Amino acid sequence: MAQKGKIALVTGATAGFGHAIALRLVREGYRVVATGRRQERLEALAGQVDTGRIMPFRLDMTDLSAVRALPESLPEGWREIDVLVNNAGLALGLEKAWQTNPLDWEKMISTNVTGLVEITRALLPGMVARNSGHVLSLGSTAGTYPYPGANVYGATKAFVDQFMRNLRSDLLGKQVRATTIAPGLCGGSEFSQVRLGDKSKADAVYQGTAPLLPEDIAETVAWVLGLPAHVNINHVEMMPTCQASAGLAVDRT
Ligand code: NDP
Ligand code: 8X3
């Protein structure tokens, strides 16, 4: 197995994409550090695979001193992270910009942007020193295509994509890869429930659709990581077949 012995750290592994990605990477031969705030979920995830394949590690992405303390705070034998999957993130609300709660904006920025850049900054020196590694981040189609109510969420995802592209510029000449995966409508996760705060509203988002599923994202992550070392995928945009980008809007009132 090509990835045998390598270590991947997946943020936000307690639900949705991160949970599916962690399990998929174990199947690919990685040992996985699974992070998130809900410790019991991390323990349950680790219990789904052979002992020693997943290391549950509680980490709040907005706790910058904990994020900056990586990798030294990881248990011995788990510190040399080969692959960082920046997956933890959230959207809050769909209100128009002038109606939003500024605290929601702050939380999205501190998780999707600040936490993501800080953990990348913490783990990148090790990858560069070993001249081997891969940083893979979850962007979104919302980072490319605006829609009403996406305001700051979409902007955080645009940031992620440009951060990954700029990383590649800095990393030119190093065997450290950087990739954004930007999915569109994806069900089977807690994303819409977190965003809308209500299960029935969240279910309505996917009603009558065949959305992407967390396993589709995990499959894409495995594909990107499994490509030969001389191949860097910069950006993957993926949508379910039932979705397309909308046209520009014109106000005719
Ligand atoms: P989920 O809500 O199912 O999972 C989000 C994960 O992020 C959870 O494991 C949660 O863990 C973690 N998380 C959130 N805040 C923090 C925090 N402060 N510290 C640590 N972990 C945190 O969402 P998805 O799986 O759907 O989304 C995963 C990523 O993919 C996100 O970045 C999202 O923006 C992006 N995305 C989602 C799409 C979708 O349609 N679902 C489409 C495109 C991109 P815990 O609560 O335990 O801390
Ligand atoms: C999640 C996809 O369209 O809800 O990033 O913004 S969308």
What does the model show?
- The chain has one domain (7-238): 3-Layer(aba) Sandwich (Rossmann fold).
- 41% of the residues lie in helices and 15% in strands.
- It has helices spanning 16-27, 39-47, 64-68, 102-130, 151-171, 191-196, 199-206, 214-226; strands spanning 7-10, 31-36, 54-58, 83-86, 133-138, 176-183, 235-238.
- Helix 1 (16-27) packs across helix 8 and helix 4 (102-130) packs parallel to helix 5 (151-171).
- The longest helix has 29 residues, at 102-130.
- It starts with 6 loop residues before the first strand and ends in a 15-residue tail after the last strand.
- The structure holds NADPH dihydro-nicotinamide-adenine-dinucleotide phosphate and 2-hydroxyethylsulfonic acid.
- 2-hydroxyethylsulfonic acid binds at residues 140-142, 150, 184-185.
- Belongs to the short-chain dehydrogenases/reductases (SDR) family.
- InterPro entries: NAD(P)-bd_dom_sf, Sc_DH/Rdtase_CS, SDR_fam.
- Its EC number is 1.1.1.-.
- It comes from Acetobacter ghanensis.
Which secondary structure elements does this structure contain, and how are they paired or packed?
Layout: E1 7-10, H1 16-27, E2 31-36, H2 39-47, E3 54-58, H3 64-68, E4 83-86, H4 102-130, E5 133-138, H5 151-171, E6 176-183, H6 191-196, H7 199-206, H8 214-226, E7 235-238
Parallel strand pairs: 1-2, 1-4, 2-3, 4-5, 5-6, 6-7
Helix pairs in contact: 1-8, 4-5
The structure holds NADPH dihydro-nicotinamide-adenine-dinucleotide phosphate and 2-hydroxyethylsulfonic acid.
GO molecular function: oxidoreductase activity, acting on the CH-OH group of donors, NAD or NADP as acceptor
Family: Belongs to the short-chain dehydrogenases/reductases (SDR) family.
Enzyme class: oxidoreductase
